[in-house]
Amino acid sequence: MSIDLVRIDDPDDPRIAHYRDIREKDLSGREGLFVAEGKVVLNVLFAARRFAVESVLLLEDRVMGMRETLSAMPEGTPVYAASQDVIDRIAGFHLHRGVLALGRRRTEDSLLRLIADLPEKALVVVLVGISNHDNVGAIFRNAAAFGADAVILDETSCDPLYRKAIRVSVGAALKVPFVREGSAGSAVATLNEAGFSVLALSPAGEAEIADLAPAARMALVLGSEGEGLPAGLLSTLRTVRIGMAPDFDSLNVAAACAVALHHLWQKRAG
């Protein structure tokens, strides 16, 4: 595929307006667009084809090394190149990677539609009050690594299409289907109706997750660090824990998610 590079010498060029000040603006004011950053993330964006690609902006020194990646992008995608000084002024800080793309947000599926599209045997992750972008990104990376079919986020969890969340996920947020809507309680009720075995991960869980019998459809519910899952929700769910040293009972939510999903992934494969 031929690539027609467009040179950008003016950081105020209107063609790259949506790349400006990416640290501060993030999703705000980008008219349904999001910023993907880094070669690995762009590889996922182009390969997964879940989101339309509006354009690519590269540091001029990175163009040759990006040709294989760019060969996978949708035909006709504009590719802009700029010097380090210009690209830093566009981004609003020193952008040493020098590899950016603009994706367009999809019209999100409803929770019912997402569940309807899942396979007969499915594993989903439910996030409740996870407002830290690093944790959301890491959880999406875990979901991709251990074969989760989807991620469901309640209305209090942060958007997985924040630039930092996408970057930390190493592009998994652009690959793993997700929906972000409503309350955790309504999501759990919908999953129950769809035949899911819904498990809440808690340090005080009633059963060790490694001892669980596998189910065809499983949902793992995760709460925020510190507060954990709301007591009212927790009281309605089957709770599981991760065994660990007796003098310590806490893991970062993303680390706990990785351990739990690994156990569930093994049970599905067994």
**What is the fourth-level CATH superfamily of the largest domain?**
SPOUT methyltransferase, trefoil knot domain
Number of helices: 10
Q: Percent of residues in helical segments? A: 25-40%
The assigned structural class equals alpha/beta
Q: Please outline the major beta sheet.
A: 7 strands, parallel
Q: Whole-number radius of gyration?
A: 20 Å
Beta-strand level of the residues, as a percent range?
Answer: 15-25%
In total, the number of strands is 12
Query: What is the string of helix and strand elements?
Result: EHEHEHEHEHEHEHEHEEEHEH
Query: Could you tell me the mean pLDDT?
Result: 93
CATH class descriptor of the largest domain: Alpha Beta
- N- and C-termini, Cα separation: 43 Å
Please state how the strands of the largest beta sheet are arranged side by side.
Answer: 8-7-6-11-9-12-10
Runs with pLDDT <50, length 5+?
A: none
The CATH architecture classification of the largest domain is 3-Layer(aba) Sandwich
Compute the number of structural domains: 2
Shape descriptor reads elongated
CATH topology descriptor of the largest domain: Alpha/beta knot
Describe what this molecule looks like in 3D.
The chain is of the alpha/beta class. It folds into two domains: 5-104, 60s Ribosomal Protein L30, Chain: A, CATH 3.30.1330; 111-269, SPOUT methyltransferase, trefoil knot domain (Alpha/beta knot, 3-Layer(aba) Sandwich). It contains ten helices and twelve strands. The strands form two sheets. A seven-stranded parallel beta sheet has the order 8-7-6-11-9-12-10, with helices on both faces. The mean pLDDT is 93.
